[in-house]
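Exercise: predict the fold of this chain.
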Amino acid sequence: MKVVAMSRKEQGSSASRRLRRAGQVPGIVYGGSVEPTPVAIEHNPLYHALRVEAFHSSILDMELDGKTEQVLLRDVQWHPYKPQVLHIDFQRVAADEKITVKVPLHFVNQEISPAVKLSAAIVGHVVNEIEISCLPKDLPSFIEVDLANLETSQTIHANDLKLPAGVSLPAHGTENPVIVTVTVPAGKGEEAGEEGEAK
C-alpha cells in the first residue's frame, strides 16, 4: 500500500490549522538514522486508506518528495466528532531490524466448533488484535485463530496461537493473555445434548 507525502517546513498549531483548512493532514515520519521529518498528506485519500484494516498492520511504501521509503503507521489522532484525521505518525523501517506491532486477529470456524454446535456455548473474543515481533518481510496482515476444535472447557491464550514463520510474541514477563473464552448458558448444554439424542 502506498502513501504520498510532502515534507513541510512550517510547524506549530497555527501552521497545522492552515494545512487542515487546505485539505492536508500534518504528520511526522521518524526512525532510522535521519532526523524526524514533518510531512503533509492529502486528507481524503488518507482517510479512505485508514478505513482498510491492512493499512494499520502492513509495511507501507511512502513516496516522500519523490523518493520512496518503507514505513509503518504508528499513531493517528482523530477529531472528537468529525470524520477528520488531525495528525498522523509513521515510523521508518529497516529490512534487517525487527519491528514490534499490533496486528488484527481473524477468528474462523467458530460456528462449527463442538462448543457452539453441541453445547450452544457463547464464544467471547477477549482481544481482537495482538502485539507481535518480526522482520518487516515477515509481517502478516492478520493472524488467523481457528476455532474449529474449540471445546466448552477451553480457554485460548496468546501462547496457543499458531504464528506464521518468523513471527514471535514479544516477551512481557510471564504474561500470557486470554484470547478466547467459552461460556455455556445455564441449561443450554443439557438441552443441546437432549436434542442430539432425540435425533
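Check your answer against the key: The longest strand covers residues 67-78.
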